[in-house]
Amino acid sequence: MKLFHLSENPAIAHFAPRPSDYTAKPVVWAIDAAKRPNYLLPRDCPRVCFRAGSTSSADHRAQFLGTDRAVIAVEAAWWARIRTTTLFDYAMPPASFRLQDESAGYWVAEAPVTPLGMEEIPDLPTAIAMEDATLRVLPSLWALHDAVAASSLVFSMIRMRNAGPRG
User: Fold this and answer.
1) Which domain of life is it from (predicted)?
2) N or C: which end of the chain has fewer CB within 10 A?
3) What is the helix (H) or strand (E) element at residue 25, kind and residue range?
4) Distance in angstroms (rounded) separating the CA atoms of residues 75 and 141
């Protein structure tokens, strides 16, 4: 299994546990390879990510995915930043982590972690495409957010507090 931590910081030698609203103790966060495409964006960029799951209906697959395997939708207001941001993909030692949320692909470590290596990702749209995910750029995310949340698809809504206002 491979675990990753994506950051806009190119110089992280060690990850120290930090307080989180989602855990009782400070932790270092990592994601698994299946959820990595959801994080190939600037940290604060709001996004609606979805794919079919084993219980997703054929109608919802057709309506939302068409022929796409996975979709990551972002707001047009973030497009320039997405195109100019470079991310740094830190490979994390799996033995240091325990699974926090299987659906989200979140892993946590309660002790400091030294990454195994780091890879620069200068072109985020291409990196997303290379992960077999489709990047959709929309004027607003809210209609899609609400529709996907009410669907049978597997989804993740990330940093929606940074999305533009509902229209």
Assistant:
1) Bacteria
2) C
3) none
4) 6
Can you give the pTM of this predicted structure?
0.93
Token reading at 144:
């899609």
CA angle, 16 as apex, 29 and 26 as ends, to 5°? 65
Report yes or no: 99 and 24 within 8 Å, Cβ to Cβ.
no
124 closest CA partner among 36, 10, 65: 36
Three-class DSSP category at 165: coil
Burial class for 1, CB neighbours closer than 10 Å (0-12, 13-18, 19+):
exposed
Nearest to 125 by CA among 117, 114, 116, 137: 137
Structure tokens at 59: 């109608």
Task: Give the model confidence (pLDDT) of 64-102 as tens digits.
Answer: 999 999 999 999 999 999 999 999 999 999 999 999 988
Using DSSP's 3-state secondary structure scheme, residue 22 falls into: coil
Residue 81 lies in a domain: yes
Domain that holds residue 96: 3-161
Residue 166 lies inside a defined structural domain of this protein: no
Is 167 part of any domain? no
Q: Structural domain tally of the chain?
A: 1
In a domain, 110, yes or no: yes
